[in-house]
Write a structure and sequence with these properties.
The chain is of the alpha+beta class. It has 11 helices and 10 strands. Strands 1-4-5-8 form a 4-stranded mixed sheet. It has a 4-stranded antiparallel sheet with strand order 2-3-7-6, with helices on one face. The chain has a two-stranded antiparallel sheet with strand order 9-10. Strand 9 and strand 10 form a beta hairpin. Pathway: Amino-acid degradation; L-leucine degradation; (S)-3-hydroxy-3-methylglutaryl-CoA from 3-isovaleryl-CoA: step 1/3. It catalyses: 3-methylbutanoyl-CoA + oxidized [electron-transfer flavoprotein] + H(+) = 3-methylbut-2-enoyl-CoA + reduced [electron-transfer flavoprotein].
Length: 387
Amino acid sequence: MSTATPDFDFQLGEHAEMIRDTTRRFADERIAPLAAKIDAEDWFPKELWPEMGELGLHGITVDEADGGLGLGYLEHVIAVEEVSRASASIGLSYGAHSNLCVNQVRRWANEEQKAKYLPKLISGEHVGSLAMSEAGAGSDVVGMKLRADAVQGGYVLNGTKFWITNAAYADTLVVYAKTGEGSRGITAFLIEKDMPGFSIGQKIDKMGMRGSPTAELVFNDCEVSEENIMGPLNGGVGVLMSGLDYERAVLSGVQLGIMQACLDVVIPYVRERKQFGKPIGTFQLMQAKVADMYVALQSARAYVYAVAKSCDAGHTTRFDAAGAILYASENAVRVSLEAIQALGGAGYTKDWPVERYARDAKLLDIGAGTNEVRRMLIGRELIGGAS
């Protein structure tokens, strides 16, 4: 299905456009027809994962030698955008799987770990997840309480994680735990769902992004081999923070997809809906509203794509990764609320999807580091660490 807006050539290259075409076709045919059910029933359609694996979508940034496509973050953003245009819930879970888990394994795992975990994650046979946050440690990651105490041959984990995307369905999880004190006492572990002492706690019922499962992880004397340490011992903060830049860039694509979905509903509606004997799209106030929505989307796209290209060129800047998702998320919330307003009373009903778009858009004002934290980071980096 083509978009309601004209295509703008961002000069993204052949690979990016190929990924867009492939993902858009799949999203229109397989995800979009399920989107309302996914939201209404808080249903995670795990059967989509192998289908996406067949298209190569789970391993976009993974080297070809390890079974991936060997492409970059730009292509990954575009795939997330197109999936999210059909269902932001699936876009979020897909981003958590393919970026937060798979891409971190690609970047930090040793060869034996890659050989063990990547094939099934890339094929979609397994679902991946990343566990950083806790009930009392979100933006303050160093404040985490999950402990990993050294024992003969490995570690014993005790504690919980909270707000974990894909948790209830994940086969492989990248989990951060305290192996010492302070910022130099955190380590990343590869956890498998069947490990003794590991279980899923309460499942979280959310306002939006329903169908992207969120739950608590519980570790009760969970024994983990030292072979499951990913990256350097006590170097987990470096693993985590480097991945957060890419997470923010890639998950910005969710908000781009939501904004495009809003315009895809609003533009046909205002062309057809009549008041005072004329289509409401002929009124200048409505034309201005649609113009603002379009400019918000395209300007966010320009920033997000530029940051993704910078990531691929090895010139990632932490404040621009934060800036891209800050700008995209706030624009998406505003655009989705304007979409509701454009549809009037109809937009406030469950008969139209724009109310879902608004509920979904709000998450990324909070997830992957709140907008307040993003602003703090950007300001601190630009000013040079002044307090």
